[in-house]
Amino acid sequence: xxxxxxxxxxxxxxxxxxxxxxxxxxxxxxxxxxxxxxxxxxxxxxxxxxxxxxxxxxxxxxxxxxxxxxxxxxxxxxxxxxxxxxxxxxxxxxxxxxxxxxxxxxxxxxxxxxxxxxxxxxxxxxxxxxxxxxxxxxxxxxxxxxxxxxxxxxxxxxxxxxxxxxxxxxxxxxxxxxxxxxxxxxxxxxxxxxxxxxxxxxxxxxxxxxxxxxxxxxxxxxxxxxxxxxxxxxxxxxxxxxxxxxxxxxxxxxxxxxxxxxxxxxxxxxxxx
Length: 273
Fold this sequence. Notes:
10 helices; single chain; 11-stranded mixed beta sheet; 29% strand; alpha/beta; Rossmann fold
């Protein structure tokens, strides 16, 4: 009887409302509104870095060898989900630098964004994709993924000194950093010509919101702090030295738990010195 009733409800309820309901009752996603990062950390379980690196490595090795098509957050897909604004930005950068792209991918894992976009970048006269990551990730990247085009670095300072890049990409990473505005200040002071912020959640108002993200165990077991940026506050950090060239909706879906919008911002420096 209960099963019959569920089938009737499913048939008469518009799909959009069913989707909203499923998201509302989900145990996974973003939750809470914490006063401090420490409060959010204390409510998180943390994550096993070794487990995450292992899963991402296994997935990307399949992409690298051609056994799989696309990886995102360690999950494999049979079709590449392109972030077209990101790809457009990368090609736009390259077109202004003599068909060359020398990029920092900050927090770029083991090269997921590189493998996602390489089909459209390997024709360039020069391609240098430099990933700056945590120590364990860098060691793994150097061992399994480093090549003529993709290199791994332990710090921003070292990468800039060695590679002299023109641009930096922060894709789905800055919201997981305890002091993101300190990082932004450092990046802006480097004076790189181009900056892309992608796969980042923004909210209305003039204050950020601190939440905890609970990841589905289908991906990996983890919960950790995540920041939803005030779009107004975030953009003000760039005003003095950078112009906002364009903004787009990002590839990620908006969080049903917290009203927000995932976006991509492309910046160009105002005065190259």
